[in-house]
Amino acid sequence: MADLAVDSYIIFTCHYFNENWELCTQVLGFEEMRESHRADNIQDSLINIIGTWNLTGKVIGISHDNAANITNAARNSQERDIYSSPCAAHTLQLSINKGLENRMCSNLLKLASDKVAAFRHSPKRTNALENKISELGQKNCALYRDVQLNGILVWIC
């Protein structure tokens, strides 16, 4: 029986516009990576999936995470006319994570999280806060706290 915690997979998706200019997404392939995650092995999988779907010469761009092996695989594929670009959302998330490592930032987030937790766990405090906000004529808003899920910062209200 395979241990999913140590198995490694790669997935290829295709994004395109249909005849009505609606954005569509199709999973082209999902396979276990039994070989080393070197660029040449990933490149072989990429070329294979492009060929399997008869997309040779039709792919105009590849968006990928910022890992060097995937970047090199995309750039060195046989499809030399393909535009290779790191995913903007992944790059932004890496930047945010780096900023959150700053001690001042992490201390402020911890302080804010503790304050939010104090209100969220006490209906009496929450009511007092809502009354004070209303008394000041301010718009009431929800309190949020951050949670780390797989390295992604998520805000929960």
TrEMBL record:
Keyword Zinc recorded: yes
SUPFAM superfamilies with a match to the protein in the record: Ribonuclease H-like (SSF53098)
Key words of the record: Metal-binding, Nucleus, Zinc, Zinc-finger
Gene Ontology annotations for the cellular component aspect, listed alphabetically: nucleus
Matches recorded under InterPro entries: RNaseH-like_sf, ZnF_BED_domain_contain
Localization: Nucleus
Gene Ontology terms, MF aspect: zinc ion binding
Record's protein name: Uncharacterized protein
Organism: Macrosiphum euphorbiae (potato aphid)
Lineage: Eukaryota, Metazoa, Ecdysozoa, Arthropoda, Hexapoda
